Amino acid sequence: MIKNIISSILDIKESYNLKHIWQNLAIMEIKSSYKRTKLGPFWIVITTFVLMSAMGPLYAYIFKVNFKDYFLYIICGFTFWEFIKQNITDFTKVFSDSHGFILSQPFPITLYILKSLYKNILILLHNVPLVVIVVVLLNKNINLVTFIFFIIGSFMNFTTLFFSGLIVSIFCTRFRDVAQIIMSILTVMFFLTPILWSVDMAGERAMFLYGNIFFVMIDVMRSPLVDSVIPYKSIIVLIFLNLILIPVSLFLFGKFKDKVPFWV
Amino acid sequence: MNFIKLNNVSVNYPVLDYYKQSIKLRAIKFLTGGKITTYNDVTVVEALKNINLDIKKGERIGLYGHNGSGKTTLLRTVAGIYKPYQGTIDINGNITSMLSIFLGVNEFETGLNNIKLKAKFLKLSQKETEKMIHEVSEFSELGDFLNMPISTYSSGMNVRLMFALATYSVSDIILLDEWLSAGDENFAPKAEARMQEIVKKSGILILASHSMDLLKKICNKIVYLEKGSIKKIEANG
Chain B contacts of A261, Cβ < 8 Å? Predict the structure, then answer.
């Protein structure tokens, strides 16, 4: 068991040393998906803004809440949800999409997971300026401390996503149906997680939301920006989750990583 | 001192066809109390069987065999991509694996930008990058086409650029899967000259091909592979 964990750690360390490769691969991937467009990756921001401008007024009216507060709430929630969702979606096919590389270059296998995560962080960074502008305009209570907690929350999510990526990618490569199962779960979770609706709407049952990992992950990034509060509960839940997730994912990844070239 | 030592290496290939890769059947098996036992065993193909090879510095090994004889699998195993289930591999030296030259290329970018991208993968400095651009553009004879997206290139131009990029930086041990013969007639002698140059510079070369002529021209030792095992090893020249 220790042997598997160590072999995973060595794989990650080796990948880290090759950061010039996965970083450039990620940039190349973003560029080629916006090939020949005039605005390039800024379409990401435009898409978010258009969607929010359409949904904001409608849902604010349906839920009978203040439009400004609601707009701020969903623009943050939706951006962070898209980030988490896109990461997991990409992890499900990360190895099968890079099979050409895997079968011709002896790179450590975590390189592809880091590439995928890095690509989505770059996409998130395109959206962050828009989010920050909206936050500064609509939230009068924003201050440096809450902003720092937003950054801490973001890094906690990067860590959580990376280690869940180790498990998701391996399982989805071996069992191709798992990817489909994960996609259906994600669709359902969008509605079960307070993104369009707020936590207070859940009333007494808001407690149960802490069992929803997607809520916890969105909360550590959203609460500091929207409500200017430090989401202690979510941070604690996320730390405990990682205490279990990290060793388990390292163990499973170490056990199966050598099989990946045979499975892609 | 570069060397490669393969000691009794065997590689098995799991065959995960549509049925076996599906978790549904595992679930069905569980529900039916394990009656559908045929789905449980993973079929394997023995791609390499008890390979013993001792390669010293300066040797140029040609792997000869029909399709499916294990040439590519052996190259991938030496490269460290496939892990053998049995046996050991000792390698001293850095490996450049040129198993596929069309990788890491963005076809919607210009030739020039792709050279720069490759320079980033190789971690070259600004000055080295300029030197690389100069050398690659000269060797590939692309001229003004370097400022056009790769998707507009003819297949001959494409091969010239890919070849120039792939052979730009090489290390002690080179693994080559057959793609030498690609390219148009005028380019072939040039490509061959470049290959010979690389062969001289490298410590060890392993080249897989089913063209005996090519292997006899370049290699000084030929390994005959058949159904995953070594049939015979022959010195050449």
Answer: 76, 81-82
